[in-house]
Each structure stands twice: as C-alpha cells, then as structure tokens.
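yo, Exonuclease domain-containing protein is done. seq:
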Amino acid sequence: MDLMPVAQNFDYLLVLDFEATCTENEKILPYQEIIEFPVAKLDVKSWKISSYFHQYVRPTVNPILTSFCTHLTGIIQDSDSLNTRLARESNLNRSKAYILQEMVDNQPTIDEALVSFDEWMRKEGVLDSKFAFVTCGDWDLGVMLPSESENKRIQIQSYFNNWINVKKSYCEHSGSFARGLRDLLRIYNLQHAGRLHSGIDDVKTICAITTAIAKEGYVYRINGSRNDDLERRRIFKNVTV
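structure:
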C-alpha cells in the first residue's frame, strides 16, 4: 500500500514500550519497576526508524527478577542465571537463548536511564522538533513511569506528560476497537518483529502498526495525558499490561 500524501502534526514519533518487574497472578509489592526502556525514533516523512534508544534497567526495590518475569520478557538476571536455565531446559535452542543474555544486574538505575534518555533526545535533535510518544495503551506513561518516579522521588521531564495511544488512534480512524497488539497485528496482517513482551521487539512491532495506520491516511494527534490518568494509575497500580 502506498503512503497517502497526508501531512502529520509531528516530525518524529517516539515509539515506547516499557517492560517491568512482575509476578504471576498477584501484585508485586511495593510497586513495579521498569527493567527495559526501549524507544524507536520514527521519521514521519519516510516512515522509517532512524534511531533507537535501548537500555536495560536495574531494579532496586525488588532486585531479583521472578522466574515468571524472565520467562515473560526474555530478560535474564545474569550469566549464572542464564547457564542454570540452559542446563535445566536442555531443549531450549541455544541460538535463541543468546538473545536472552541481556542482564539487569550492573545496569543503570531508572534515574540514570532517564538522564541517558534525555541526552539521547538532545543528541538526536528531537527536543528541537515536533514530536510525540506513541504507546500501545496508556499504561507505560500514564501508570508505570509516574508510579515508579513518584515512589522513588524522581522528577521526570514534562515531555512524558502526553502521548499517543495507538489503540485509541486506530479506534478513531476505523470506528473499531482493538484489544491490544495481537489484535492490531491480525487486523493489518503483520508479523511480530520478534518475541512478545521483549520491549525492543514490541517497539519495532508498534512502529509497523503505527505506519500501517498512517498509510491509510490517518493524522496522528495526542490522545493520552498524565493529567487525565490519575485515577487510572490508582486502579492499575502494580498491574502489568
């Protein structure tokens, strides 16, 4: 499908998808922490990804990841954990396992990662452009980042206060509701870029969906705001989506 000649409101869309500490069938207390921080810089003139920011993050409140979390996200705690899993799961394809060797131990904490991200934004010239974050849902910037930053008394940049929820964009564009990433992939006959719940793979996948919607002539606009999500954060605190 050829791109429609529709002008967008932004120069860049920053597609973001956090992964966070989690456990199965219950809340992780006292709160979740971001463990993967991936962002793709999508140029709306070419609809190509021009740059990535990708940082694994060390949790400090619950520093040991649950087995459910490592299986869900593919993030391995450290090299010893990886070797133990390889020994235990002898049928695991080793070439696939090497994708899982990213570690959270010895990685920056969330406050350090946020500083690095701001430096990346400046280096990429994003702060001097018209840009917006894109997420698949309101959880990442409406719940997760505000919750952790408030609990850890970290001041976050105001540019995180507004975003585009691509599910809402699709609904506005089509008049139909998509439950999540899998629904949108099915609707647009797209394949996931890798492993579901790998943050960087989810980001690449959301980029493809964002582009597919734009190709149908949709003009993106802000449809999510931190100011509108105070109640959402209260309800969904410690819930992974």
